[in-house]
């Protein structure tokens, strides 16, 4: 019981630290992006983003290995085998160096070819674009080599390191903006080199922190062929899942462009920005809890693992629902205030995408549990194939004259099917019963959603569209969701835990 309490406190502390980190970075990003756009100008800002995107296209290779590294380091840590942990870290670092070399080769061949032959860049800015590409490649290499160190920090659940180093990174980017305004050289090239310098410094901070706190992060040359093969095999099937995600997301964007033109692409881009901002807060909570799921599996504590999965799914949903419900009601008002001129279709796009995000939060524990087992081949093959069906089904819908938002409805429907398949595939691997998942998660969140929506809906329908309605709806949404979650969405032990914490804080306040 004491161990469970300690884990709960650690998860809560890590979540709060990551929330603070996200909020600070979001505020800095909103400010710096505006200044950078005004300083560089629309053309140079576009060049920086599109040229950097050439390298980002290869990111699914590294993303696959990142999940493998995270799983193996966390698993070894959960087992308490320091010797194996050292071997896993060193092998992961070797693999990431090889990936970095591959990215350099692809960037300097395919990337250069694509930039010079396919991209629309003014002739007088080609030299600047070349240096942006070189800096983007170097920055990507630095980030790739940082992955094992970042994975080690997450595995040890030292989220304070992420929070503090991320804050340092945000402050350095503020300094970059200042230098960009002060110096009069080619600002696009200067910006690219300054961002590269920031990436290098942050990389040194992470490695320095790991070397001081984690013995296994000090690289030792080892060659374990079987471990190398196992980790790359794990990453290979994860790559299939990541590739399917990239294909259906970018494929949908291309389909919308073919059938409706760039205005609809702009609407999707805006919707994605808002969705990502909301989703990031929930990702922080999941990042704090995911290592615990892997560690309990490594220890063979399947009952505790199932409880963590249920808790992760429900709490992630509640957090996202709390943030999303005001946005779902007041989508039009929020977008109008932020953008002034809102592209057509943006409101309906965003609403459907938020619903898909809510559904997706319930699948995260299933994906983490699958990675914990290491048996990802069948899982990734089946789920990846189902998700790839989003693209052809969306194409058929659009060919038959369905509206633009139909592709997002298809995404939601296919994600729902994939959710059921995930549970069925995991049942023999971790002994979890589908009916338990439905009872402890889907039933609870469904009741919370139905009851929470009633009061905000009545307020929304009976007030005029003004600033007063916006603040009233937001307030009522928070109170309604918070109350219903506490009364219906939590177990009795969870309610007792929260009540005790609130009373403890209240008593400390009185003593002051």
UniProtKB/TrEMBL annotation:
Coiled coil: none annotated. The chain crosses the membrane at residues 16-33, 45-63, 95-116, 128-149, 161-182, 188-206, 315-336, 348-369, 381-401, 407-429, 441-460, 466-488. It comes from the Bacteria. It is a multi-pass membrane protein. Keywords: Cell membrane, Membrane, Transmembrane, Transmembrane helix. It is found in: Cell membrane. InterPro entries: Poly_Biosynth_Transport. This is Lipopolysaccharide biosynthesis protein. It comes from Phocaeicola intestinalis.
